[in-house]
Design goal:
The protein has one domain: 3-Layer(aba) Sandwich (Rossmann fold), CATH 3.40.50. The chain is an alpha/beta fold. Helices cover about 40% and strands about 10% of the residues. It has a five-stranded parallel beta sheet with strand order 1-2-3-5-4, sandwiched between helices. The chain is globular and about 50 Å long. The protein binds thiamine diphosphate and magnesium ion. Thiamine diphosphate binds next to helix 2.
Length: about 270
C-alpha cells in the first residue's frame, strides 16, 4: 500500500467520526450519504484537483451537487484546518459557515449552492462549457448522487456535455444504491449507467468508490473530446454497522448512545 493511502485511511476514519459527531449534536443532517463519499472527496481534494488555496481564482472547480451530504466536506475542512475545531459545534446553526447545504460565499471549495438535486450537474456542465469557450484549461468536478440521477436535468446536462465535447468535465456518481426512503433499484431503477453514459458519448469508468487506488486510477483516465464519468460503487452509511445500506439513516442523526457505538466501531476499524 502506498504511504499516502495509509494517511488517507486515517483521515477517512477521522472524517467519518466528525460527520457523525456534527449530525448528532445538531440532531439533524444526512449521515448516510456523507459517509459514502468520504474516499471520493479525499482523492479529489488531496490529489486530483489543482489549487494553491480555495481562494485561488484559477483553481479547478468543485460542485457538491448532492449537497445534503456536505458534512463530509465540512469534516475534511475541519481535519485540514480550514475551519476552526470549535466550528464543528456550529453545524446547521443559523448564520454559521456550516449550513445544512454548503454556501459558496462561506464554504471553501464550494462553487455552487446546491440543495435542489440535479441543478449542480447542470451548473457544472455550463461552467465547463464557459471555460472551454474561453480556452481556460481548468477542470470542473461534480459529485452526484444515484437518487439524484433520477432527475431529468442530469440527463439534459449530460447530453450537452457530450455534444460540446467537454473533456475538462468529470461527473462522479456516488452509487451507494440507496436514496431517501428506499433503494435506487426499487424507487427508480437507473439501469446500466455505464452503458447509458457511453451511449451519450462519455468516457465511463466503473469502480469501487472506497478504494483509493481505483479512484486515483479512474481520475487519471482522460479521452480528448469526451466528458468523463466515474461511477463509484459505495456503501451508504459506510463504517457504521447499523447504518450501512439502510435508508433509515439517509436524513436522521444518531442519538448519544448510537453515536458512542458508531465511534467505537470506527475506532476499531482504524486498527485493522
Ligand atoms: C429536487 C429535489 N427533490 C428532492 C429533494 C429532497 N432530497 C434530498 S436528498 C434526497 C435523496 C437523494 O438520494 P441520493 O442522490 O441517492 O443521495 P445519497 O444517497 O448520496 O445521500 C432527496 C429526495 C431535493 N433536495 N431536491
Ligand atoms: Mg444514494
Amino acid at each position: 500500500m502506498k504511504e499516502w493511502y495509509k494517511e488517507w485511511k486515517k483521515l477517512a476514519v477521522e472524517m467519518r467520526k466528525k460527520i457523525l459527531m456534527m449530525c448528532s449534536e445538531a440532531n439533524s443532517g444526512h449521515p448516510g450519504g456523507a459517509l459514502s463519499c468520504v474516499e471520493i472527496l479525499i482523492v479529489l481534494l488531496e490529489k486530483v484537483m489543482k489549487y494553491e488555496s480555495p481562494e485561488d481564482p484559477n483553481r479547478d472547480r468543485f460542485i457538491f451537487s448532492k449537497g445534503h451530504a456536505v458534512p463530509a466536506l465540512y469534516a475534511y475542512l475541519l481535519e485540514k484546518g480550514y475551519f476552526e475545531p470549535e466550528e464543528i459545534h456550529t453545524f446547521r446553526k443559523y448564520g454559521t459557515r456550516l449550513q445544512g447545504h454548503p454556501i459558496k460565499e462561506k464554504c471553501p471549495f464550494t462553487d455552487f449552492n446546491p440543495g435542489s438535486l440535479g441543478q449542480g450537474v447542470s451548473a457544472a456542465t455550463g461552467m465547463a462549457l464557459g471555460y472551454k469557450m474561453k480556452n481556460d484549461p481548468r477542470n470542473v468536478y461534480v459529485l452526484i448522487g444515484d437518487g439524484e440521477s433520477d432527475e431529468g436535468i442530469v440527463w439534459e446536462a449530460a447530453s450537452a456535455a457530450a455534444h460540446y465535447h467537454l473533456d475538462q468535465l468529470t461527473y462522479i456518481v456516488d452509487l451507494n444504491a440507496v436514496q431517501l426512503d428506499g433503494t435506487t433499484a426499487e424507487i427508480m431503477n437507473l439501469g446500466d449507467l455505464k452503458k447509458r453514459y457511453e451511449a451519450i458519448g462519455f468516457l465511463a469508468d466503473e469502480i469501487n468508490g472506497h478504494d483509493f487506488e481505483e479512484l486515483v486510477k479512474a481520475f487519471e483516465h482522460h479521452e480528448e473530446g469526451k466528458p468523463h464519468v466515474i461511477l463509484a460503487h459505495t456503501i451508504k452509511g459506510k463504517g457504521v454497522s447499523y447504518m450501512e445500506g439502510n435508508c433509515e439513516w439517509h436524513g436522521k442523526a444518531p442519538n448519544a448512545e448510537q453515536l458512542a457505538i458508531a465511534l467505537k466501531e470506527l475506532e476499531e476499524s482504524s486498527h485493522e
